[in-house]
Predict the 3D structure of the following.
Amino acid sequence: MNARTLLAVDPTLADFGKDPLWISIIKAVVIFIVLMLGVLFGVWFERKLISRMQNRYGPNRAGKFGLLQSVADGLKMGLKEDLMPRTVDKVIYFIAPVVLAVPAFLAFSVIPMGPMVSMFGVQTPLQLTDLPVAVLLVLAMASIGVYGIVLAGWGSRSPYSILGGLRASAQVVSYEIAMGLSFVGVFLFAGTLSTSEIVAAQAGGGVFTLGGLEIPMPSWYMILLIPSFLIYIVTMLGETNRVPFDLPEGEGELVGGFQTEYSNSLKFAVIMLAEYVNVFVVSAVSITLFMGGWRAPWPISMWDGANTGWWPLLWFFAKMVLVFAFFVWCRASLPRVRYDQLMALGWKILIPINLAWILLVATVRALQIDNVNRSLVLILAAVVMIGCLGIWWRFDSVLQKRKEAKAALVEAEFEQLQAEPTAGGFPVPPLDLPHYHGVERKEVPSGSN
């Protein structure tokens, strides 16, 4: 089978909206069941893999290899008495886990998992639906999901819960900006925001011509746009509140964060369900945008039938397992960062680097357009780059002067305290007491005045 035949099975936007209603219902039910089962096996897989990393066995009692441990935990939380504090806002308290979970399931509806297949005699793509702006739908669902965290904290009427909700809102704003910017390079190269067409754009690498020299380009965007891919890897950890960015749940300072007042009941299970489904969604997005989607990796792709029929489902879920294993590896290996470090990483590092990378990618794409004044494009890019460097130098100089001024102020205060210990307004003992210089204190004889 040649490349032209393989491309013929790729779904396009014109292939969606034609399925019978019963086919769409079957797809939606299958996606829901797969995600629910994925959560059960994902919890087991995470506990098992972390145990191996820490030289432990992990779940090994309930069922073969402990596979039924997650089922037992789910039944326990579903049947456990649902305790509710008196002071909570009951409506918000109950609706928050639902608001957290529903967008996560909806976001998976635009994820392509395979090409056109025959399902009960009907030709249909292995994807529930697609849109011209499907990637923006995923970002929108992620933005709505954070409302569940904020409402859970607000409705609990607990200071720890409210602080966790506020942290989550600030964190999502910071990292969703960087995540959205990491997609811009993909949009520029693929020329579309449709998830199925982005996968199709990674079928072949193409050639970049520069000065008469033809340079072959890789097909997967994780290699071609590696800065965008690395930034997305960091932002997807922050977007899902996973270690090392699980500050909204920081046990060390917030007890349990936004879920402090949710006992181990059904509502707590829904919150955990939403967290794992969100992990699956960001993993699927990384596969779709950067790892070729459902297409087989090399050297499996050398087989003519690798990207046809139902085989792509296997490659898609194999990639999902690998990305999820990366989440588990981060949880087992990395410590939780401070909140100020989290915010500084998002605003001061990821976003500026992303903007500079987008400028470079846009310049390269502009040079590839026919009938374009390449000299003008290079001049404009150089002017913008010089302006960015000037702004960076200006801010860096100001920050350096502030650091030097602060260091000089601290040094002056220290010298003042050495000369006059009470200058700070506190009863500070003098620094020249005898015991500071190794002089032993003389014992006073008893009975003497």
Remarks:
- The beta strands are 116-119, 122-125, 207-210, 213-216.
- The longest strand covers residues 116-119.
- Residues 1-8 have pLDDT under 50 and may be disordered.
